[in-house]
Design brief:
mainly beta
């Protein structure tokens, strides 16, 4: 689910599934999908070419840097970057 007022740049990938493969008789054969919902809260900014993997929750007012690969849920008001993405700093607010 993508909530209101999110900014999502170009070439962002949001994945809610992975597939499981088994090798049978020396060949790959796709067996099934593993799914988990992705939730992006209000006012999130996701930079270009970022990837969000299955089962992730991104808290409100958080920022995902360009090209980041998000493998863990991101709390509200935080900036995450890198491969895999990690906490960089708190988002500051003004009145």
């Amino acid at each position: 689910m993508i909530n209101k007022n999110c900014l999502i740049a170009e070439m962002v990938v949001i994945r809610d599934q992975d597939h499981i493969t088994k090798i049978l008789n020396g060949k790959h054969k796709q067996e099934e999908f593993v799914t988990a919902p992705v939730e992006i809260a209000e006012n999130v900014w996701i930079g270009a070419k970022a990837s969000i993997l299955k089962g992730i929750q991104i808290g409100e007012f958080s920022v995902i840097a360009a090209s980041a690969v998000v493998t863990k849920s991101v709390p509200s008001f935080q900036v995450w970057a890198g491969i895999p993405a990690k906490f960089m700093k708190q988002v500051t607010t003004t009145d």
